[in-house]
Amino acid sequence: MREKKSTEFAPLDEKDRRILRSLQEDGRMSHLALAEKVNLSATPCVRRVRRLEEEGFIRQYAAAVDPRAAGFNVCVIVMMKLSAKTRQAAEKFTAAIAKVKAVSECHSLSGRYDYLCKVYARDVAEFESLVMSDLSQLPGLMDMESFFILSSPVDARGVPV
User: Fold this and answer.
1) In terms of Cα–Cα distance, which of 147, 128, 125 is closest to 136?
2) Residue 143 CB contacts under 8 Å (≥ 6 apart), including other chains
3) Per-residue pLDDT tens digits for 118-143
4) Ramachandran region of residue 156, left (φ > 0), alpha (ψ -120 to 50) or beta?
5) End-to-end CA distance of the chain, in Å?
6) pLDDT for 7-66, tens place per residue?
7) How far apart are CA 27 and CA 37, in angstroms?
8) Pairing state between β 141-148 and 115-121
């Protein structure tokens, strides 16, 4: 699927929004079940889904894995500040952080920190090892602050379409 810039997206109508909300809840829903849920016949519903995929509204279909069931009992938000605010520094940093498998998300920010990263580890000792061996060695990293997630009352709810 081709990714588009936000300025290129066509407006969504209410049927498109219902399709997107339904697929965010259950991406494995059959086309027939989806059509029934959004009150469309199957063929127009499939056409709309294909268009939403082609236009980049739907980036992918993926399973939501429970981290604890997979053995990852620690989730940490790591705030990172770079020593230089240049494109070259950012490119080096992002290329390096993309190789750290424990990092599930990394976002460029405005404000006090330059990046927010979500990191999973099996336990605190594994996180400490990750900090010492990988995170603290990232190119251009000046400062890092970690916040252990205690609970997630709202977790990956999807885009509010």
Assistant:
1) 128
2) 80, 81, 113
3) 999 999 999 999 999 999 999 999 99
4) left
5) 20
6) 567 789 999 999 999 999 999 999 999 999 999 999 999 999 999 999 999 999 999 999
7) 13
8) unpaired
DSSP symbols for the chain: -----GGGPPPP-HHHHHHHHHHHH-TT--HHHHHHHTT--HHHHHHHHHHHHHTTS---------TTTTT--EEEEEEEEES--SHHHHHHHHHHHTT-TTEEEEEE-SSS-SEEEEEEESSHHHHHHHHHHTGGGSTTEEEEEEEE----SS-------
With tokens 């602050």, the residue in question is 145
Domains of the chain, by residue range, sit at 6-54, 74-148
Rounded to two decimals, the pTM is 0.85
Question: Does CATH number 3.10.20.10 belong to domain 6-54?
Answer: no
Query: What is the reported pLDDT for 5?
Result: 52
Residue 29 identity: M
Pick the CATH number of 74-148 from 3.40.50.300, 3.30.70.920, 2.60.40.10, 3.40.50.12780: 3.30.70.920
Q: Is the pLDDT of residue 158 over 70?
A: yes
Under a CB-based contact definition with an 8 Å cutoff, are residues 106 and 94 in contact? Answer: yes
